[in-house]
Amino acid sequence: MAVPAPVLYPPFNIVRLSHIEFTVTDLGASRAFYADTLGLQITDSDARAIYMRAMEERVHHCVVLKQGDAPCVGYLGFKLYDEPDLEKAQDYFRSRQLPVEWVERPYQGRTLRTRDEHGIPLEFHVTMDRLPPIHQKYALYKGVKPLRIDHFNCFTPDVDASTEFYNAIGFRLTEYTQDEVTGRLWASWLHRKGGVHDIAFTNGFGPRLHHTAFWAANPLHIIDLLDVMSTTGYLGHIERGPGRHGISNAFFLYVRDPDGHRIEIYTSDYQTVDPEHEPIKWDLKDPQRQTLWGAPAPRSWFEEGSVFAGVEPHKATLEATPIVAP
Amino acid sequence: MAVPAPVLYPPFNIVRLSHIEFTVTDLGASRAFYADTLGLQITDSDARAIYMRAMEERVHHCVVLKQGDAPCVGYLGFKLYDEPDLEKAQDYFRSRQLPVEWVERPYQGRTLRTRDEHGIPLEFHVTMDRLPPIHQKYALYKGVKPLRIDHFNCFTPDVDASTEFYNAIGFRLTEYTQDEVTGRLWASWLHRKGGVHDIAFTNGFGPRLHHTAFWAANPLHIIDLLDVMSTTGYLGHIERGPGRHGISNAFFLYVRDPDGHRIEIYTSDYQTVDPEHEPIKWDLKDPQRQTLWGAPAPRSWFEEGSVFAGVEPHKATLEATPIVAP
Amino acid sequence: MAVPAPVLYPPFNIVRLSHIEFTVTDLGASRAFYADTLGLQITDSDARAIYMRAMEERVHHCVVLKQGDAPCVGYLGFKLYDEPDLEKAQDYFRSRQLPVEWVERPYQGRTLRTRDEHGIPLEFHVTMDRLPPIHQKYALYKGVKPLRIDHFNCFTPDVDASTEFYNAIGFRLTEYTQDEVTGRLWASWLHRKGGVHDIAFTNGFGPRLHHTAFWAANPLHIIDLLDVMSTTGYLGHIERGPGRHGISNAFFLYVRDPDGHRIEIYTSDYQTVDPEHEPIKWDLKDPQRQTLWGAPAPRSWFEEGSVFAGVEPHKATLEATPIVAP
Amino acid sequence: MAVPAPVLYPPFNIVRLSHIEFTVTDLGASRAFYADTLGLQITDSDARAIYMRAMEERVHHCVVLKQGDAPCVGYLGFKLYDEPDLEKAQDYFRSRQLPVEWVERPYQGRTLRTRDEHGIPLEFHVTMDRLPPIHQKYALYKGVKPLRIDHFNCFTPDVDASTEFYNAIGFRLTEYTQDEVTGRLWASWLHRKGGVHDIAFTNGFGPRLHHTAFWAANPLHIIDLLDVMSTTGYLGHIERGPGRHGISNAFFLYVRDPDGHRIEIYTSDYQTVDPEHEPIKWDLKDPQRQTLWGAPAPRSWFEEGSVFAGVEPHKATLEATPIVAP
C-alpha cells in the first residue's frame, strides 16, 4: 500500500491545530497540574471552565478545561486561513456525508463542527480573540515554560483510512510506520504548520486521543519539570521519558494529567515547509522508531487514551504488535 | 506612516528563503570557517565553488561559496511552491518593469532571476536536488550544529519602500522599528515560513547584505561555538553577542567570515503562521529593541555589510541614529 | 617577583568561605533582589536583618543583610575545620600583631574576628546551625537557582602583599595576572575548598569588596536570570556578561544589588584539590584573561566596589591599566 | 547498626581517587569507545596499553587500558597528599595485616599497593607526571566532553564492613541506604575530595567493580552522547538513563564499554567539604533512592560488574532485594 501523495491545493486552507477541550473531573486539581505545574497561563476561568494559553501564543486559548463527571475530549480545534475557508470546509464535509453544524464557542468567531470518518469531533474557526504578547514577560514563565501547542496524536482503528482522510484536506505526511507483513500503515504523522505534525495517528482501539503536545524551548526545561514533578507528588504522573524519538527526532516526555489525559512535552523536531518534503518510512519492528534512545514505552502508553465525548471506540483492523517495555 | 496590511493572496507563492551565493577570496579559508568551525556539511566542492547544507536540510545547498577577487553576494535564493508560481513571478516582476531572466544553476530546476526596486538580486526556483536526511547522523554534527538557514537581513536606503515591496509579494510583517520623529520605518522583519523572518531590512547605506542567519537548537551550542572560536584563532571574528534580541526574542551571536560576510547564529524565536499575527512595534529609541540584554552592538555592526555583485549602494533617505556601543 | 609556594601545613585549617554580611539601605528592596530575583532562600528575617542560604547549603546562612544608613560590608566569614583551629587562628593573628576578638553571631558557635593586613574584616567560626537539606525540594528553586556561595573578590592596594598573606594561612594560588613591566601581581585567585577560588584579589583602590559569587548549575540558568532581570526593572542592574572568563574558565554574569553591591553568578570552573596544582599565569595585557569571549568589562567593573565598614581604602601601589570597554 | 562517625584526623591523607587500570580484550575497540566516543584524551599509547586523561585534568592519566585475554580491573588508584603519607599508609595497612608492596607504575612516583579487607586492590601514590592544561583547548573537546574522573562504585559482600574500612582511613559518608528490616547498610557513598563520593559500595556478589564515573559539565552533553551512541552502533551499550539519582541528586547515564566495564557519566552533585556534613539516609524500599525520576534500573545494572584481577567474589551476607525494572 503506497502512502498518499501530498495534496498541493487542498479544498480549504487549515493553518494549524488550535486548541483542545478536555472534560476533567476536578477543575482545581487540573488547574494545579496545567497552570501551576506545567506553566500554562490562565486567560479566563470560572467554576465550570478554565481557558489557558502557552507563552508565545497570541490567541485566547489552546486548552479549555471543562468540569464534568467523566474525563473525555470534547473536540480537536483547528484554525482556518480565511473566512471563505469555513464555507469551503462546510461544503467539503457535507459532500462526504459528514454531519456539519455551526456552534457557538466563547472567544471564537464562527465555528464549524464536524467529525472525521471514525468519529473524531473536529471544530474549525478562523478568528479567536487575540491577546497582547506575553512571550517577553519572563516573570510569568514557570513549570516547563510551554511555548505553544504543538500537536494531537490519536488512536485510530484504521491508520490507512485516517491518513487518507487528513491527507485529502491538506495535511502533509512527514513520517510513517509501516507493518512489513501487510504493508499497512501502523502510524502516521501529518502537518500543516511546518513541523513534523499537527496531528498523528497510531493503530489501536479508537478513535481515542493518545496525547496532546506542547512545545518547550529545550531539553533542560523538560529536566526541570521532571525534577519538580518527582518531588511534588506527581511522580506517578510521569509515564514515559525523557528520551529522543526516532520519528520526529524530538526530545520528549509524556506525563498524565489528574484524569489520565496524556500530555507530551516536545522539543526540537524539524522544519517541513517544502511541499515535496519526503516522508520518512520506519519499520514497525525497528525499536529506534519510537525511541532513538531511552527506556522502551510502558504498556500503558500503547493501550490507554482519552475517549472523545459520545464516540464509541472500536478494535483496530490491523493486528500488529509494537515493542513494549517488558 | 502606517505599516502595510498583510497580502493574504499574494501574486505567487514563496515557501521560504532557500540559499545564498557568497563570493569569497580564499575558498580554503572559507571552508575552514563554514564547514570546520560552524559545522555546515559540504555537499559538493571543486577548486572554484563549495556547496553546503545544514543538518536538517534535505536540499542540496543553503550556501554556495564561489572563489573570486573581491567579496560580494551573488544573489538571495527563494523557493517557490509550485511550477506555475515561476510564471506568475515572471509576470509579476515584468509588470513592475523589473528585469527578469531564466538562469542556469547547478542542482536546481528552472530558476528565475530578477531584482528588487533597490537592486537586490533575487532568484526563485521550485526544485533543487534533494538529498537523504542526515539529521539523525549525529556523528556528523559539529561546530554550532547548524540546523537550517533561517533568514537574510539587508541594509536598504528606504525601509518603507522595501517593506512595501516584499509585503506585496506575500511576506508578512512580524516586527518593526519606527522612528518616532518622522514616523518612518527604521527596520522591518518579514516572513513566509512561519518564524519571525525570512528577510529583514535595516535603514542604512544600501542595498547591502547585513547578515545571513542559521538556526541552532539551543543557546548552549552557541556557547560551545564561542568557546571554540575564541581559542582557535577566530576571536576577532566574533562581532556581537551572545545576547537576546528584543525584536524576535531570539538568543543570538554574530560572527564574521574570513571575508567579513556576517553570519548570525540564531535560536528560539516564535511561531507566526497565523495570517493576522499582529506585528510588534518598537521605538527606535528603545535600547531593548536590539538587545533585550547583552552588550550594545558595536559600530561595525551598524555600518559594515556585504555588497551585492554589481550593485552600487546609496545613502539612506532616513537619517536617524540608533544606539551604538560607545 | 615569584609567586609564593603553597603552604602544605598551614597554621590552622580553613575549610571554605562561609558567608558575608552586607549592610543595605532598604531591606525590602534587597529582599526582592536576593530572594525573589536571585532565588536565595530566607532562613530568618526581622525588621533589621535577613538571613539566607543557597539551595544545596545545609548551614543557616551564606548571606546576612542588615538594615543600615549606608551600604557597606561587615565582614567576610570563613569556616574552620575543628574547634582547636580557632585557638590556632587566634594565636596566629596575634603573633602578627593583628587585632583579635571573640564576637557573638546569631546561629554560629564561637567566632573569632580579626582583619588582614590591609584591614579586611575576617571572621572565623567552626559551627553554624545546620538545617535540613532542601536541594531536592525542587518546588523551592527559583531565579538563577543558586546552589552555594562560591567566592569573594576584593580590591587590594597591594596584590603581592595580599597574596602572601592568604597564601600563608593555607589558601592555594590557582591563577594570577602579572604586570609584565614590573613583575608584580595585578590579580590573584586562591582557594581552600577545591575550586578556583574562595577569595581573589584585584589591584585597585582598596581594601574594598569587588564581588561575591554564587554557583549556578549551568549557563542556561544564567540566561534565564538575564531574561527575568531585563524584563522586571532590573536591566540597569546587569553590569557585565554573560561571557566566559579566561581565568577560571567559568561562565559568568555580574549584577548589582539595589545598593550597588556586586554579585557574580558563576558556573563551570575546575577542580583544584591536588596540592601541587600549578597556578596559571596570565599577562595583564592579554584581553582573554578576563574575557575568553564576550564584551569587555565596563569601567564601573574596574572602579566600583563596596567598602568594608569603618575601613578607609587607599590607592593601589601598582599603577597599571587593564583593558576597559571603550 | 549506626553509621560510623567521620574520622577527622585520619592515619594518612588521601586527596582523591586518581585513576583505574582496566584490562580489555581489544585495545582498538576500547580506544574507539573511550577516546573517539566518550572523548577522553590519549596521553600515551602503544600496542599493549593506552593512557588517557579528561579535559580538566593536569595529571598524566585517569584511565589505563591494558590489552589482555579477559576483562578485569587491575586496581583502583588514589592520590595521597604528601610523601610522608605513603609511609603512614604503609604502616597503617601493615598494622591491619594487609599485604603491602612498592610497585613501579609508568608516569608515577613511588606507589604503594595493598588491598582492602575484601580484596579490592588499591594503589596509592603522591606524584604523577603533570601535563599542560588543556581545559581551554576547546577544539579538543568531543564526545561527552568529560572533565574529570569522579568516583568508583564497587559491589561488596558486606557494605557495613567496607564502609567501616574506608571511613577509618578518612573517607566521609555522605549518603547511605539502609535495609529497614536488619538495620544493615545496603549501600554507602564516601568522599575525600568534597563531592558526594570518591568511592561507593553496593551490596552484592563482590568484591567487583560496579562502575567508574566521569564528570560532565551539564545534562545536554549527556544528551549529545546519547544521540551519538544511539546512531553509531553503540545503542546496545546504553544500559540505564538518563535520569536523576535520588542519592547524590546527580543527573546520570550508564553505558558499557566493549568489554562490559560500566561507565557512568555524572553531573551536578553537591559540595560536601564541611566535616560535619550529615549523611542522608535512604530506605532500601524507597524507589526514588536510585531514581528520583527516570526508568527503573535494569537487572543487569544490579547483577553485572567487573572482577578485580585475581580476586574471587563472594555472595553478599545481606539478602535484600532492591527494586528492579520488571
Describe this entry's structure for a reader:
Four copies of one chain form a homotetramer. Chain A has helices at residues 27-38, 83-95, 159-168, 219-229, 299-303, and strands at residues 14-24, 41-45, 49-53, 63-67, 72-80, 101-103, 111-115, 121-125, 148-156, 172-178, 185-191, 199-203, 208-215, 238-244, 251-256, 262-267, 280-283, 306-307. Chain A is an alpha+beta fold and 326 residues long. In chain A, the strands form two sheets. In chain A, strands 9, 10, 11, 12, 13, 14, 15, 16, 17 and 18 form a ten-stranded mixed sheet that branches. In chain A, strands 2-3-4-1-5-8-7-6 form an eight-stranded mixed sheet, with helices on one face. In chain A, strand 6 and strand 7 form a beta hairpin. The two termini of chain A are 31 Å apart. In chain A, 58% of the residues are buried. The A-B interface holds A 8, 15-16, 56, 58-59, 79, 81-82, 127, 130, 133, 135-136, 147-148, 193-194, 217-220, 246, 249, 268, 270-271, 273-278, 280, 292 and B 8, 15-16, 56, 58-59, 79, 81-82, 127, 130, 133, 135-136, 147-148, 193-194, 217-220, 246, 249, 268, 270-271, 273-278, 280, 292.
Spatial gap, N to C terminus of chain A: 31 Å
Main sheet: strands, sense, barrel of chain A: 10 strands, mixed
Order of helices and strands of chain A: EHEEEEHEEEEHEEEEHEEEEHE
Give the low-confidence spans of chain A: none
Share of residues in helices of chain A: 10-25%
DSSP strand count of chain A:
18
The largest contact between protein chains, plus residue counts on each side, is: A-B, 35 and 35 residues
* Assembly classification: homotetramer
Shape of chain A: globular
Return the average pLDDT of chain A rounded to an integer.
96
Number of helices of chain A: 5
Please state roughly what percent of the residues of chain A sit in beta strands, choosing from under 5%, 5-15%, 15-25%, 25-35%, 35-45% or over 45%: 25-35%
| Gyration radius of chain A, rounded | 19 Å
